[in-house]
Amino acid sequence: MLRIYLTGEVQVENGARLLRESQLGGPQGRFVLAYLVTERKRAVTQGELAGALWPENLPPSWTVALSAVVSRLRSRLAGLGMARNRTIASAFGCYQFSPAGEVWIDVEAALAGIDAAEGAIAAGDPQAAYGPSLIATTVLRRPFLTGQDGAWMEERRAVLASSLVRALDCRVEALAANNEVELALVHAREVVRLEPYRESAYRRLMRMLDRSGERAEAVRVYQDLGRLLKRDLGVAPSDETEAVYREIAG
Fold first, then answer.
1. Among 11, 107, 180, 237, which is disulfide-ready with 175 (CB 3.0 to 4.6 Å)?
2. How far is C-alpha 162 from the chain's CA centre?
3. Residue 154: is its pLDDT beyond 90?
4. How far apart are CA 248 and CA 196, in angstroms?
5. 220: pLDDT strictly greater than 90
6. End position of a domain, from candidates 84, 101, 118
7. Residue 250: its pLDDT value, please?
8. Residue 41, Cβ neighbours under 10 Å: how many?
């Protein structure tokens, strides 16, 4: 199976052969691979790919420059035993990543893991979310194409950041169901740091603290939330959050 890692160090693995990030033809080769793999369900026009690769200013002869980047990338992938012109197919001014055989991509595996974990929790079986949520959080904590910017990058990072929060929510529930409350607390606090205005994260953290016997800390978390919401948004905690607080505080 062809395995592609887009988070952390970008790598392509085909059987026993490995193509590391340093062998992709520089940052441009890395970006083109990540873009085409991410958008692999459709053909990408040369203009779209060039605009994403050079978001500030296109080179004077951008079609030639883009063709050279793709050609180098094809050559590197061919070194893994992949068909040069099929792996990155081109027709009618478009490119599409379409290698033969089955492909595993870390980001796609993470998103599938979130769906599976959320489904298990909704079905009342949070322990079944343990493995999928672990895969998702492990992948999504890694950086995505460090050092490169642009509208597409911002959009993808936003998607991955929100997906990480979903994965962590599932991880907390799975760990709690497995009686790993201390580790669940670590993840619950991480969600609050990532999304400091989302009250459901505070409610989950408060419940985990109460379960671990840290009732006073749970109350402090509620009070911190109240001060934050009043200072920054001019509102008070919701009735649902207030109910959790009253239940814990007695």
1. 180
2. 7
3. yes
4. 21
5. yes
6. 101
7. 79
8. 8
Instruction: Specify the number of domains making up the chain.
Output: 3
Task: Give the CATH number for residue 93.
Answer: 1.10.10.10
Task: Give which of 160, 103, 102 is closest to 136, Cα–Cα.
Answer: 160
Q: Angle formed by the axes of helices 239-249 and 215-233, to 10°?
A: 150
* Six token digits for residue 114: 């979130």
Domain limits at 220? Answer: 192-250
CA neighbor of 136 nearest in space, from 115, 120, 156, 119: 115
- Does residue 126 form part of some domain? yes
pLDDT tens for residues 102-124? Answer: 999 999 999 999 999 999 999 99
Buried-exposed string 149-183: b where 16+ CB fall within 10 A, e elsewhere: ebebbeebeeebeebbbbbbbbbbbbbbbeebbee
Which residue among 156, 178, 200 closes a domain?
Answer: 178
Please spell the DSSP secondary structure of 117-186, one letter per residue: HHHHHHTT-GGGGHHHHHHHHHHHTS-BSTT--SHHHHHHHHHHHHHHHHHHHHHHHHHHHTT-HHHHHH
Give the number of residues written for the chain. 250
Q: What is the arithmetic mean of pLDDT over 71-87?
A: 90
Quote the pTM value: 0.90
Residue whose entry in the numeric block shows the structure tokens 């951008």: 62
Chain CA centroid to CA 7, Å = 8
Q: What is the pLDDT of residue 6?
A: 98
Residue at 187 is within a domain: no
Structural tokens at position 40: 């692999």
Contact 111, 162 (CB under 8 A): no
